[in-house]
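pls read this stuff:
=====
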Amino acid sequence: MSRSLSTHPSCDQGQPPGRRFFGIQIATSRKERLLRTLLGVILCLMRLNFLSFKPRLIGVIAALMVGALHAAAQAPSPVMEEVPFITTPDHVTVAMLELAGVGPRDHVIDLGSGDGRIVITAARRFGARGLGVEIVPELVTRSQENALRAGVADRAQFRTQDLFQTDLTPATVITMYLLPDVNLALRPRLLALAPGTRIVSHDWDLGDWRPDRTLTVAVPQKTVGREKVSHLHLWTVPARLHGLWCGAAGVTLQVEQQFQVLAMVLAQGDNRRSFTGRVDGARLHAVGAAAVAWSAQAGPDALDITSAAGLPGLAGQRLRRAVAASCG
């Protein structure tokens, strides 16, 4: 959240407002914040009649503004200074966890955990363990107290931490209610998680990584936006299959991958067939012409063909990731 840095009341009134998101004032870009601050200084000095008869000084300040803005434009800026805390209604919390299929064997990490309700509900109602990551210490303290009252403090942990500094690898489920730009900045780290990890985002998507499923939940009391609904998006992290795979007896598989969507060319000797398919975690399903289809289970460096219709000799094959540009 942005706020005026000046203590003089006349300067506070002249400070141009920042952008507002969810009805909360938040920091804008580095360049906009600097411009807003410098403009506020000039307006403040003008109100105090300090610049009334000093046009040369005004020119100097203007020149400094141009130089400062140029420097700010060259400096890297964070994706977002702060994500506002918006409470997720209880029935939406339950719907998010049900959409992810959370159970006792899961470890849930909630990014931007607020008052802790998602992690606490995952532990109390679904038997899971979880970690809530929150940048505001007061909210972390509140979450820990809520977990203690709910009797799940041993399975619901909370940490004051920047979500970009959080180790996500223990998670089997990631939940989040962040901002669009933050989601996109997180996307490479989410895609790097173990295949089969489920991700649920409240309202915001992950750009051109299309969700596997979207659930719309009625929220009559919702104060954010015009719609009285929440959109819950589910993704399953796909195995990384892009590239060339090699099998026995001249079998090769070339895979082009766009997230969970696959385009493949399977060669068995001189017989080449094209397939389209999807990967659901580590499970691959491929379909070709004339009802020819096959399925496989992916490992780190192996692809085991579990079934094949219309492709004699393929089922049971184990393909290995090529270490060179060709098989052989």
Remarks:
- Residues 1 and 25 are 5 Å apart (CA to CA).
